Structure to design on (465 residues):
């Protein structure tokens, strides 16, 4: 590393230039494949574990709130550490950050697979979520650096989102099959060969540029405390009511949240530059991404429990219910960039949000007497809408920021998305704690209302082309 490079604030790990020019075509392809595979694995883990939760409860014991923590401990750390992970990716280089994330995620998956208690499983899930936080912004930064051409980058992002869509599709089926035929532990064993394969492919990718950034410890600590306290208050409040502990947690969440904003506003190099929100190309994707994940993952959580606990289906049978939705989701993820190029992001985002809302609202009418094939068909719009909206929102976000902020922008978007997923599981689980049937209906209608509100906001704020 030269002194001149150091003074410019951008170092390289190897031959790749500090401007992020692409290396050989093979290295760009390797970066894309590694990014897609890693995103596939961490998304597969979410959807597969949701289906396995009843089996986890039967094997390790624990209440509904305990199972919510198995799901939310992952998404909570995923969301809380994402912003620092974006800065981390920019600082050490996307390839290096991504490799470390994959390695830790794989080891944590092993710990999940052999966990003897619900507490040990939850702790391992915390580590998994932390590693996933490092992987996601780094994976998008890899694509951003490997494909500087906007059209090529849009296709790369589309493939990245397709990887997530296929994982969402395969997760319930694989999770259900593995849980039914072997054990819920096999869901975590599945991550090991996939993680090793991603590491091997990543070695062929070009080394990434590094940028001098400062780690924002006060901002990170206040973010973790705020999200953890809020999630705790929602989960435990739904089961125990407004106890002193729950009210104290809610107060901590408010104070920590206010502290986070104050810290970020005053720091010279914040992990979340607040001025980003002045751009509609940033603020709209952040809020809409929250709504998309809240509606989708909250719905998957509720339906997974409904199929097994209320209708008595096996884990594998429950997983098969998601297949029709998953098949069309994969197609529309790839179709979304083409729709954006012809109609602009505004129409695609608004249409996607409204279709997801229709799916969530339609599922609110499902009960134990609804034929399975009808339920499976009603789930399809839930997948189509998100598959249309999220690639468009991701491209809009990355196109609205400079290349050197790609990691931070990707982290911000995915922080919002994972926070939406975590809070929806907490809120929907709280609604289910009483009477399941009305709680399920209220949860799905709440998700639909949130999506409609975001569709109206996106229609008003985004330019018509």
């Amino acid at each position: 590393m030269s002194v001149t490079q150091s003074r410019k604030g951008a170092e390289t790990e190897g031959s790749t230039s500090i401007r992020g020019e692409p290396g050989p075509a093979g290295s760009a392809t390797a970066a894309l494949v590694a990014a897609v595979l890693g995103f596939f694995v961490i998304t597969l883990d979410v959807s597969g574990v949701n289906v396995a939760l009843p089996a986890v409860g039967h094997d390790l014991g624990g209440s509904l709130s305990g199972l919510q923590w198995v799901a939310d401990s992952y998404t909570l750390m995923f969301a809380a550490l994402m912003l620092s992970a974006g800065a981390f990716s920019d600082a050490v280089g996307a390839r290096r950050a991504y490799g470390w994330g994959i390695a830790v995620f794989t080891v944590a998956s092993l710990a999940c697979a052999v966990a003897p208690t619900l507490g040990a499983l939850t702790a391992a899930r915390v580590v998994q979520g932390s590693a996933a936080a490092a992987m996601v912004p780094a994976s998008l930064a890899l694509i951003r650096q490997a494909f500087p051409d906007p059209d090529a980058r849009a296709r790369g992002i589309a493939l990245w989102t397709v990887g997530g869509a296929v994982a969402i599709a395969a997760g319930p089926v694989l999770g259900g099959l593995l849980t039914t035929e072997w054990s819920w532990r096999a869901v975590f064993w599945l991550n090991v060969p996939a993680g090793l394969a991603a590491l091997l492919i990543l070695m062929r990718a070009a080394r990434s540029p590094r940028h001098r950034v400062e780690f924002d410890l006060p901002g990170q600590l206040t973010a973790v405390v705020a999200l953890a306290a809020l999630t705790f208050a929602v989960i435990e409040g739904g089961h125990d009511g407004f106890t002193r502990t729950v009210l104290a947690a809610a107060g901590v969440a408010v104070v920590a949240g206010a502290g986070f904003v104050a810290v970020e506003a005053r720091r010279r190099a914040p992990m979340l530059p607040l001025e980003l929100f002045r751009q509609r190309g940033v603020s709209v994707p952040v809020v809409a991404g929250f709504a998309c994940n809240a509606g989708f993952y909250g719905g998957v959580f509720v339906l997974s429990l409904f199929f097994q606990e209320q209708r008595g289906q096996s884990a594998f049978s429950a997983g098969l219910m998601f297949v029709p939705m998953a098949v069309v989701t994969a197609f529309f993820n790839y179709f979304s960039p083409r729709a954006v190029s012809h109609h602009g992001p505004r129409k695609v985002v608004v249409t996607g949000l409204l279709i997801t809302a229709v799916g969530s609202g339609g599922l609110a009418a499902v009960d134990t007497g609804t034929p399975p094939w009808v339920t499976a068909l009603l789930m399809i719009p839930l997948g189509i809408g998100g598959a249309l909206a999220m690639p468009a929102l991701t491209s809009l976000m990355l196109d609205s920021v400079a290349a050197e902020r790609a990691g931070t922008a990707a982290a911000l978007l995915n922080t919002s998305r994972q926070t939406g997923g975590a809070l929806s599981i907490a809120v929907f689980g709280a609604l289910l704690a009483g009477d399941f049937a009305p709680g399920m209906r209220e949860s799905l209608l709440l998700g639909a209302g949130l999506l409609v509100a975001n569709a109206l906001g996106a229609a008003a704020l985004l330019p018509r082309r």
